[in-house]
């Protein structure tokens, strides 16, 4: 169904890869290039929670689209995968790190989006968890079930 092309990101549990979709896309709903976020099955729960958050926020123009989840096997290891919209422009951080600049209009648009994200997080976050695991701190945000439509109403 899809074939990994290259790794575009790596985290503590898994990888994000750019992938090409085969002609045999049974649903016919996938574009030719997608991003695949993969974790070994032992870390399935973290990606399932992320899938649920994507489902709750479906329709948001500020998030990449999550098409579906699937499973794969590489080198006898089972992986849980989220099939995501590929963001051709990359991240804002990557752009700025590599000497990119924003014109005034782009800076205004990015500021608006970031302020909206902060407002959404303020509404969504009912619990902020901080954990110390092997002297490395991480922060996780627990999101209640709230749809994008309800968020828009809360922000208006």
UniProtKB/TrEMBL annotation:
ATP binds at residue 37. The keyword Nucleotide-binding applies. The lineage of its organism: Eukaryota, Viridiplantae, Streptophyta, Embryophyta, Tracheophyta. This is Protein kinase domain-containing protein. Residues 2-156 form the Protein kinase domain. Signal peptide: none annotated. One of its GO terms (biological process) is signal transduction. One of its GO terms (molecular function) is ATP binding. It comes from Escallonia herrerae. InterPro entries: Kinase-like_dom_sf, Plant_MAPKKK, Prot_kinase_dom, Protein_kinase_ATP_BS. Keywords: ATP-binding, Nucleotide-binding.
């Amino acid at each position: 169904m899809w074939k990994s092309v290259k790794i575009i990101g790596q985290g503590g549990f898994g990888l994000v890869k750019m992938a090409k979709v085969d002609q045999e896309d049974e649903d016919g709903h996938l574009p030719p290039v997608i991003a695949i976020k993969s974790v070994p099955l032992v870390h399935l729960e973290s990606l399932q929670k992320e899938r649920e958050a994507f489902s709750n926020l479906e329709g948001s123009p500020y998030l990449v689209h999550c098409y579906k989840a699937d499973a794969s096997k590489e080198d006898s290891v089972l992986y849980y995968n989220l099939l995501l919209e590929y963001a051709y422009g990359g991240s804002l951080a990557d752009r700025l790190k590599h000497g990119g600049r924003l014109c005034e209009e782009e800076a205004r648009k990015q500021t608006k989006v970031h302020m909206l994200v902060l407002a959404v997080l303020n509404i969504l976050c009912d619990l902020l968890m901080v954990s110390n695991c092997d002297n490395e701190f991480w922060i996780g945000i627990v999101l209640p079930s709230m749809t994008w439509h309800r968020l828009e109403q809360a922000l208006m």
